[in-house]
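FYI - complex with heme C, inputs then prediction.
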Amino acid sequence: MSNPQPKKGLWSKPSKKWLLGIPLGGILAFILGAFALGGFHFGMTYTNNNDFCYGCHVGMDTIVEEYEASPHFTNTKGVVAATCSDCHVPQEFFPKVALKIGASVDIIHMITGKINLENFESEHRPRLAEKVTHEFKENDSKQCRYCHDVTQMDFENQSRNASRRHQTMEARGLTCIDCHAGIAHKLPE
Ligand code: HEC
Ligand code: HEC
Ligand code: HEC
Ligand code: HEC
């Protein structure tokens, strides 16, 4: 008995031409996958997790260690007061998608290994801190206000200094980040 002839089609031996398609196809799939992070609900929920952010930021910079030592992670109440995305990802759908697509570019940076523990402080932190600070100033510290509402503050029980500043900040055209820069991370030197 002779072996049955393999069926043509899906399982037939790929032609050379088709094989050439693999690298390009692979790269395309990778890029689409990265962009899809911004689009799918699953991606959205998963990527809002601290673990996801830790995946790259641990070992690349000292951001996670600083955050974990800060009052939004370590405090007398023992609650995680704010995750990375609470402060960095806008809640509205479209800004969120836009930001995630922007962040997909980070993946490409990471793969090229541009940022590491040696060069983060001197070459990258100043630029990144400035970018994020600018965003907070532009949007009037919007993410802070998801949780903190000045009109809810008990001024009687705040220090005189804090109470006075919070009550006058609006009139003085100041926003949270003007006084609370470095709330979760070290500031650039
Ligand atoms: C795939 C790796 C990777 C993941 C996952 C990741 N980051 Fe990043 N992140 C980077 C890289 C690389 C940079 C530096 C980008 C640059 O040099 O412009 C960066 C920069 C940033 C910045 C600086 C501002 C900016 O827009 O570049 C913030 C804020 C940030 N990440 C927050 C987060 C948060 C929040 C998460 C989780 C939701 C997260 N990152 C997940 C790799 C990652
Ligand atoms: C309480 C809000 C808050 C939390 C939580 C937070 N950040 Fe930030 N982050 C900021 C602010 C504000 C800045 C702007 C610079 C500054 O004032 O420190 C910033 C700046 C950054 C930068 C730019 C580099 C730098 O040193 O300024 C990166 C990267 C970043 N954050 C990533 C993260 C990641 C990853 C997490 C979670 C591990 C996180 N952040 C948690 C508020 C926060
Ligand atoms: C997801 C909610 C959330 C977000 C977003 C958030 N915070 Fe907080 N923040 C808290 C909670 C809860 C506490 C109280 C933690 C505790 O029990 O000590 C706190 C504490 C603080 C404190 C007091 C810290 C101390 O030393 O005791 C300051 C100042 C503060 N936040 C400023 C900010 C600023 C500025 C931003 C935006 C960059 C921000 N927070 C974003 C929930 C949040
Ligand atoms: C003009 C400066 C200024 C601005 C603007 C400002 N703060 Fe404050 N804030 C202070 C000072 C000063 C303190 C008390 C000293 C400290 O703990 O850093 C304080 C304390 C706090 C505390 C701790 C209060 C307590 O009694 O435990 C929180 C929370 C806080 N600020 C949140 C915010 C948020 C959110 C915004 C933006 C809506 C904001 N602050 C804007 C100056 C300011």
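The pocket of heme C (ligand 2) is lined by residues 53, 57, 63-64, 67, 72, 82, 84, 87-88, 125, 128-129, 132-133, 136, 177, 181-185, 187 (CB under 6 Å). The mean pLDDT is 83.
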